[in-house]
Amino acid sequence: MRVLCAFPEAMSSSSSCPPSCLALVALLALLLHLSLSFQAGDRRPLPVDKTTGLKEKTLILLDVSTKNPVRTVNENFLSLQLDPSIIHDGWLDFLSSKRLVTLARGLSPAFLRFGGKRTDFLQFQNLRNPAKSRGGPGPDYYLKNYEDDIVRSDVALDKQKGCKVAQHPDIMLELQREKAAQMHLVLLKEQFSNTYSNLILTARSLDKLYNFADCSGLHLIFALNALRRNPNNSWNSSSALSLLKYSASKKYNISWELGNEPNNYRSMHGRAVNGSQLGKDYIQLKRLLQPIRIYSRASLYGPNIGRPRKNVIALLDGFMKVAGSTVDAVTWQHCYIDGRVVKVMDFLKTRLLDTLSDQIRKIQKVVNTYTPGKKIWLEGVVTTSAGGTNNLSDSYAAGFLWLNTLGMLANQGIDVVIRHSFFDHGYNHLVDQNFNPLPDYWLSLLYKRLIGPKVLAVHVAGLQRKPRPGRVIRDKLRIYAHCTNHHNHNYVRGSITLFIINLHRSRKKIKLAGTLRDKLVHQYLLQPYGQEGLKSKSVQLNGQPLMMVDDGTLPELKPRPLRAGRTLVIPPVTMGFYVVKNVNALACRYR
Length: 591
Fold this sequence. Notes:
Layout: H1 19-40, E1 60-64, E2 71-72, E3 78-82, H2 85-89, H3 98-105, E4 110-114, E5 122-125, H4 139-154, E6 156-157, E7 164-165, H5 170-193, E8 199-202, H6 203-216, E9 218-224, H7 238-249, E10 254-258, H8 265-269, H9 275-289, E11 300-305, H10 310-323, E12 329-332, E13 335-337, H11 350-353, H12 355-370, E14 375-384, H13 399-411, E15 416-420, H14 439-450, E16 451-456, E17 458-461, E18 477-484, E19 496-502, E20 508-512, E21 521-528, E22 539-541, E23 544-545, E24 560-562, E25 568-570, E26 574-580
Helix pairs in contact: 3-6, 4-5, 9-10, 10-12
């Protein structure tokens, strides 16, 4: 549908015209206006805000195509990642926390990828309880044995899924936070020097990881170590085979990957792996899976390359030639900002928000050359590198990048986006080490509750600015539309959800037109809470602070009903969701 926007032009008066002349001109203008209104019938002129001393502000008209979706993404579109560093700093032992499981369950259904830079230094050992064999007393020894005692005595049976969840004492969590703070410095040193120590994943640790995923309603994707190499540079699969056999014996439903950012292997390990060799390694992994009954049809994803620069595109090209048909989806990673130089205003730069679009086109071009229509996933997306920056990448301001990423990826046909990381690992996470949800968690929760997989085309008028020579116009007001999540029983099928980002320093007014005209709207406006402003780690929904309930459950996300036909007023530098009820959109009535 084409949307038109008309506005009355201001008439300029001449200082040389006598008062009688001005009165005559005004009378003629009034008669002309009445005549045009009469001819137009019900088509009344659009209301325009008038501010003294300024030109009329543009009113934005918004309509959505409701007949057919432009894209349909995966039901698990917004998914999560856990970094293997949680083995190193001890947080893996706390994945049984009831509070952590509750937070993860709020974002289901989703994939849970277990992978990161330490993936290729991970070794599996089929040991049940190595903590008991350490023998030497010390904080780490006592912490692990204390955790064993707590799990034995305080494990509760979750009535919904029969999962093992625990209530860890405060003193135990305090000990763990002290240990994690010390280990965080070690992990940062490894990351900056690009030299990593080996990690041991025991059978007991794998049990805990799978229990967390299963209890939370998440499907586990496990990234295997690809840097174990034979003398001829082929993949050494002995450790992976041991892990596969153990997982199969436990009947764990897992999907698989091989390696993480293979384009960095030369700098990390001194040994490069080209695209064709990596493709052969994936074929080898596929052959390992096929004889194992539970994994004979397991999904396989890869190659999880880094930012698509020239050498990375060459690696992807070689991989797709050999193994393009072997993987169920092609994966890559993206990082927006260098975490060592980030400023809060960086998150408001439209140029930064648009950097992802060019990368998507580069990946799609290679994939469609060899396997047209193959699904593409963005795995391990982070706002800032080097583990993030405290009070910035975990603040309200970082949400603009995250929400725009979700909207842009769905619009351009990316099937799944995996957020790095759900918990732990620096400051890019959704949940902090006190098990408190951060702003991006609440943003993700709203997205999950309100947004369905069908993407709709948005039509606007009155948004465009006049172009200047040599200057690219970048939208500071970003509007995306989806069918409302059909699992949300508060809304009937056929409803539409808009999510809007306003980076302007002034409020913007949006008039719903066409199929959205005169419909009841539910507003979910997310704003920072507290004195820190954009750097706040707390948020409010429609003016009410968001936090977990005292009994450890998630709060009810209450909307603010807006009167039918009312103009949407978007406050400056905010983001929000707007459910347009009872649109009866054809694209949204059926799954």
